[in-house]
Request: fold
Amino acid sequence: QVQLVESGGGLVQAGGSLRLSCAVSTSISSFNTMGWYRQAPGKQRDLVAAITSGSSTNYADSVKGRFTIARDNVNNTLYLQMNSLKPEDTAVYYCNARQLVVTPTPGVNNYWGQGTQVAVSS
Reply:
């Protein structure tokens, strides 16, 4: 059973920084895409940033230039460096790992962490 455990959330003032970590119980080199999502109260879960096995990255427009996603295949950890935080970044942040399966049945294995709370005060 694959486990993803997030850490690094907390309360920070606007303009501050946090680094989220996602420790994975298996080799992350097997995942095609890993990402960070966030969900604010009463809102849907949205993609914040994603990174492929080839280290291509994709960011939500709202975080471009402020957040950086990185994956450490040696330590099986995904990171999200968050700088210049804004109150609207307040949410629960979730780590995601996606694995394409070819055999025996084509499909996608999709794994989630339990989430870590980020709160940004104005």
